[in-house]
Amino acid sequence: MHEKMQSNPPQPSHPNQGPLILEDQSRPSKPTLKSNFSRYYNQISSIDIRPNLPFHISRFMGYRESNSNLKPIWLFTWLRFLPIYFENLLSVFFCSFLSILLICLTYSYSDLSHLNIPLSLGSAGATAIILFVTPLTPTATPRNVIFGHLIASLTSTIITRIFKFNLQTTPNLIQGEMSRDLSWLTGCLSMSLTAVFQVMTGTVHPPGGATALLGAISPNFVKIGWEFISITLVMVALQLAVALVFGNLGRKRYPLYWFFPPKPEHHDHDEAPSVRIRNPVMEKDRLKLIGSWIHDSVIELETLDLNDHRRRSDLIKNLNHALGLINELDLN
């Protein structure tokens, strides 16, 4: 009987399945909504059309083929003889001055000049600081700048519509009406809801808080209603145009990315080496990306305030992490 049991071992249900039946059982039976969203997000975030554009267009969209291309254009080759610190000072002064000047000229000679918009739109100054002083931070990316202000202006406009202020009167009368009503509540709601929506959408941009607050409590902006959204977007477009053009003339670059941060795949240290699928082409692309991170971090370290010890410590940690990722690469 023992020999009979040995002569009739259990057969797999499929002739080619064999020992792989345990591997099939370990697979998830059905993809979840979260896994599908992550897969689609990774596919969309990997799309970058900048390499396919002409050089003179892709450069002013922040794209560089390699770190060796971080050189001034031919009209600004003299910048190479300046320390990167002084080049950064020139860029900060000129870009911030030009961006605010364009906003003032645009609204001073438009049909809305009587509303004193350049004096009321104080969030433009805060955006200029973030765009031209810290251009490599996530809050300075075009995604955060555009959607941060869009969410703020839309939220404040909706809140003021809910409270139904009389828009047919002059700003002075609106101000009197708001002082007797719950204008303080509109400002608080607009600001707090804007902060929540920015966190939920991953588009945190601190100057958007000022935009939301001004849109809810400033009589000039309350009067123009929905037009406040278009005014805010024009302001954002002017400042981004200055950042894209003049932020890519020298040895700096803006932006590092537009909508999705480029993140190389990171494998856990306890993962079995046989499980990893190594692709030399992908590994070289990751090496270029990590090299770009290192270069940008070094530039930021050179221009960093000596008293900003916390940011300096974070940059050094990022450099050490980048070196660790390089050690994990397999370029053979």
TrEMBL record:
Chain segments carrying region Disordered: 1-25
Full protein name: HPP family protein
Which Pfam families does this entry report, sorted A to Z? Answer: TM_HPP (PF04982)
Q: Where is the signal peptide?
A: none
Key words, A-Z: Membrane, Transmembrane, Transmembrane helix
Tagged with keyword Membrane: yes
- Describe the location of the HPP transmembrane region domain by residue ranges: 87-255
Q: Which domain of life is it from?
A: Eukaryota
On whether NADP is a keyword of this UniProt record, the answer is: no
The family database entries (PANTHER family) matched by this protein are listed as: TRANSMEMBRANE PROTEIN DDB_G0269096-RELATED
The membrane spanning regions, by residue number, are 89-108, 115-133, 145-163, 184-204, 224-246
